[in-house]
Amino acid sequence: MMRKIKNIAIVAHVDHGKTTLVDAMLKQAGVFRKNQEVAERVMDSNDLERERGITIFSKNAAFHYKDVKINIVDTPGHSDFGGEVQRILKMVDSVLLLVDAVEGPMPQTKYVLKNALSLGLKPIVVINKIDRKGSRPEAVLDMVLDLFIELNASDEQLDFPVVYASAKRGVAMHGVDDESRDLTPLLDTMLEHVPDSEGDLEHPLQMLVSAIEYDNYIGKIGTGKVVNGAVRQGDEVLLLKRSGDRILYRVSRIFSYEGLKKIPVEEGVAGDIVSIAGLETVDVGETIADRENPIPLPLIEIDEPTLSMTFMVNDSPFAGKDGKYVTSRNLWDRLQKELQTNVSIRVERTERAEAFTVKARGELQLAVLIENMRREGYEFQVSKPRVIYRELKGKRTEPIELAVIDVADEFAGVVIEKLGVRKGQMVNMSNGNDGYTRLEFKVPARGLIGFRNEFMTVTRGTGILNHTFYEYEYEKGEIPGRSRGVLISQSKCKSVGYALFNLQPRGELFIGPGVDTYEGMIVGEHSRDNDLVVNVAKGKKLTNTRASGSDEAIRLTPPREFSLEQAMEFIADDELLEITPRHIRMRKKILNAMDRRKAANMASWS
Ligand SMILES: Nc1nc2c(ncn2[C@@H]2O[C@H](COP(=O)(O)OP(=O)(O)OP(=O)(O)O)[C@@H](O)[C@H]2O)c(=O)[nH]1
Ligand SMILES: [Mg+2]
Description:
alpha+beta, Rossmann fold, Elongation Factor Tu (Ef-tu), domain 3, Alpha-Beta Plaits, 4 domains, seven-stranded mixed sheet, 15 helices, 32% strand, globular, binds guanosine-5'-triphosphate
């Protein structure tokens, strides 16, 4: 007899507890051996995921509950990866919509719910983190209901089951005040409400590829749901490409999911989620079909990128000091390799042989690529990210984001003012709990680049800013860039504490003593709006041979540190980020001060 299968994705805003809930399910379903050491958030297995504490790639797992095989897909909550969630939804029969019992629905909750509803899925709502201080499950449930209504849910969809949970404690219940020791109420709700994944076994094979990965030994692997029919190892199948091409391949391996593992199997049958190797050119959204009777499934649309950045060979005076891969050929090949598995980015050549354009859905997506590359030993430079404009009826349109902001009441005014300058339009304002105000804005993506630093300053680090792509609209007019200039090193030298001390009144420094700098390298932010060239090595008259930087007499303010994303947002159009395995430096595009002045003059004449 065929086993029943149910395919479910967990979707939510970032950090609402998806991966933690999958942990708890797998544990309680007996996927791990007794006493086995299991890392927290075991599905976040990638290095960057563990460091950042967020999910970047969606992942499959499977467990058995009361004779049903449940394929569960953990998805990323950050808005840059929304496109991935959109694709994953095509391989499941229902979703668990998680909502944080304190925060309530957030921009990405809306995005994933909108997509799930439009595919006709009937979500199960899970109000999570009810153990948190400030938890307000009833109010949050009301907000979720409003969201369903706003998104035009059908009557059937509106009639959603609700489960309350603490993923962290591994408990779930039907009523907020019910006693519970485990996730049984949630699992039972899943069995009852998620339709069985059925397909027609007699029908010719149709499998929709929703995700791809690359394995060094077996090559490209496509993962997705077998919608109809069956596929066996060694079968010849037709790959129906997005381009319309049809290519014959032999299936070399098939895997099904058990726990966290991919298990080699002889065949994949209708209803199950499987991974298939042997189709060298397989891509997301394409159909793997029967060779005699190929019938394509509807293609999966892929969101167009909204942000672009130039990646170029490192030509700073320190080029080649720590990188293993430094040539334009290395850079191009690595970017091409990225395209193999990352469907939402684009890579283009530019008129310069050593520079390439990389387009993506957001800054985090670009930052993840950059971070991975520097870990692999690449050295290169990138420009400030720019939004991608589009034409509509002969006029320019630009990407608009929907931003949701939670701030203490006293900061609401200044945040509204700052976003006004950035052409933000307030669409909603409401009082949350505990003296917090929630503000909702439609704001050009262009206006948000670089805003986070400022936002953190004006809210003294207490504000929460979330945003997600909303739509393209006609261009909103000029938005001012960085309001201050930078401090620039005048020559190749090692910084000296005494010199830095004397520079402190000029602005905020980004380096401490003993740092190698070069002419044109940015070492701080000027307190005025113009750039200033400074000498970071000007020592006191050396009367004895005291080591630089160890002067006890001077007190240096700790330098401002930047994360990669902060640095990407900070730089201006005439500046670059130099990325090496060991350093991230900011620099002027034109390193020499005289040359910069000449270039500026030329620009003002033309
Ligand atoms: N108090 C409390 N904390 C929770 C609960 N569930 C998750 N968390 C915490 O919330 C944080 C985020 O949890 P994750 O499971 O990584 O959230 P996620 O939805 O997978 O996040 P992304 O994949 O990045 O979108 C972690 O610090 C968890 O420990 C819960 O039920 N109660
Ligand atoms: Mg996660």
